[in-house]
Amino acid sequence: MRNKRSFRFVAMFVLIAILAAFPFSASANHSWNGYHWARTANPFTIKLGDNVSGLWDGMLVKASGDWSQSNVMDTTIVSGGTSPKSCRPTAGRVEVCNANYRNTGWLGVAQIWITGGTHIIQGTVKNNDYYFGNSSYQYNNTAEMQHVICQEVGHTFGLAHQDESGISLNTCMDYYHNTSDNDLISTSPNAHDYQELSTIYAHLDSTTTIGSATNMPKGMATGDFSSPNSWGKLISSTKDRGASTYVRDFGKGNFVVTFVIWATE
Fold first, then answer.
1. What's the structural domain count of the chain?
2. Where are the alpha helices (DSSP H) in the chain?
3. From the CB of residue 6, how many other CB atoms can be counted at a distance below 10 Å?
């Protein structure tokens, strides 16, 4: 029979193994796998290409202002570099778009292109007007629109969800769904988002991927990643399958990550 000291040692070993196999939840640390923009100094500025129209214009302004409250990062809105329908990426910045992408099943999509295993080199955000303006979509309201654009832009900085249970932590990085125009919680970042950005960007890099072109594999540079069959391997999904993450791997630390919010009808 094992003595108590032996038992405690085995129990501690098992606990360490479990913690190594299952990292802490996003509520404690919601870095998106350590993905970040390479830069040589803080604070830095990310350009958001304005390919939005209608109500989305004001929502992009609010999202940009909210994220610029970070002490390590600012955003600035610049002229769009793509068409809203295609929403093709531009090296060194984030293109933000809205269009009627039709009955795709998704409400919003954020995509980031990665080199070197962790460095973001460009990003896109798509907001699907098919569902906003569609009465069969139960969260068709301006507050949910703000929630979505704030969250998708936040993903392009390297943030994941804080929580995926559906409760509100009063951050756009939770998985709460706003129920009306007056339901304004969870439409902006909260203090933990800013703290997490400070953690993600605490170190400096020897090079920068902001505002600069980067060599990448041809298929990664020229590919069309607009359809689900182009997103690659499903690597995570919420319990209700309301949000999913995919990776299209091009090898040698080069890949495209797609974060999807599926529409609830």
1. 1
2. 4-21, 55-67, 142-155, 191-200, 218-222
3. 10
What is the tens place of the pLDDT at every residue in 50-85? 999 999 999 999 999 999 999 999 999 999 999 999
Q: What is the pLDDT of residues 100-129, one digit of tens each?
A: 999 998 999 999 999 999 999 999 999 999
Cα–Cα distance between 72 and 70 in angstroms, integer? Answer: 6
Half-sphere exposure of 117 (CA within 13 A, CB side): 1
Q: What is the CATH number of the domain that holds 222?
A: 3.40.390.10
Q: Are 18 and 30 in contact (CB under 8 A)?
A: no
Domain that holds residue 102: 29-262
What is this structure's pTM?
0.88
Q: Give the Cα separation of 205 and 213 in Å (integer).
A: 16
For residue 15, is it within any domain? no
Residue 99 forms part of a structural domain: yes
